[in-house]
Amino acid sequence: MRIAVCQNKGGSGKSAMVVNLAAALAEAGELVDVADVDPQGNASRRLAARPAADQMTISEAIKCDALGAARDAYVPCGWGGVYSERIRVLPARFELENRISEAGTVGAVKRLKRALAGCDDRRITLLDCPPSLGHLTQLAMVAADVVLIVAEPEFDGIEGAVRVLNFVRDHADDLNNPRLRVAGVVPSRVRSGLGVHDFQIAGLDECFPGLVWAPHIRERAVVKAAADSVAPLRSLRTAPAREVAEDFDKLAAQVRKLMEVAA
């Protein structure tokens, strides 16, 4: 199953969602691929999967426009242990920006799907999309089975999430992926006791009926600490790190249920 993790606003915690969800799934015994479709390459860096200068990346795999072109571009997660055994990364460099200029080329939006063909069978693939609905995100949506939206509970974050939801509903056919759907909306970077967050959380079910996942991912310093130290949350060995990791375990269980339904 391929899951495009999306938001039309930056700073929503989207890459943190991808990285920590991948870790939780790997801890649960799943094989996970992370396809970094964001030229910033944050997911690649946080998973310690920075490619060598002469190494193929997702950009070159897309450019090849060939079935299975991504096969030789994967690198293992650099965290060691079960993470390196179970998580592979299709890494990105800033050169991925070059693919945007191909948006007007006939059929270019299908190139990532072609590149992944036959490469990620029997795995969960999380596609970390840039904070836009442009060509790179559309590449991911064409390749994906479902979309997972990450939404910071503030006006701009909710608006960005609504734009993603509407885009999928209005343009799945245009992307030649008519079965594409939004599987869930995960509130992230939630701060307890902050009035604007409490207000937006209270209205989420009305904005996204039947789509809001729990638990909500709280804004905790340990998430940033793990990202900065290029390490999994559980390696920090603190109570807050364990609490957030357990929240991601529960989200991972929902992803596994999606797989069971799709099977």
UniProtKB/TrEMBL annotation:
<dbReference type="InterPro" id="IPR050678">
    <property type="entry name" value="DNA_Partitioning_ATPase"/>
</dbReference>
<dbReference type="Pfam" id="PF13614">
    <property type="entry name" value="AAA_31"/>
</dbReference>
<dbReference type="InterPro" id="IPR025669">
    <property type="entry name" value="AAA_dom"/>
</dbReference>
<feature type="domain" description="AAA">
    <location>
        <begin position="3"/>
        <end position="177"/>
    </location>
</feature>
<dbReference type="InterPro" id="IPR027417">
    <property type="entry name" value="P-loop_NTPase"/>
</dbReference>
<protein>
    <submittedName>
        <fullName>ParA family protein</fullName>
    </submittedName>
</protein>
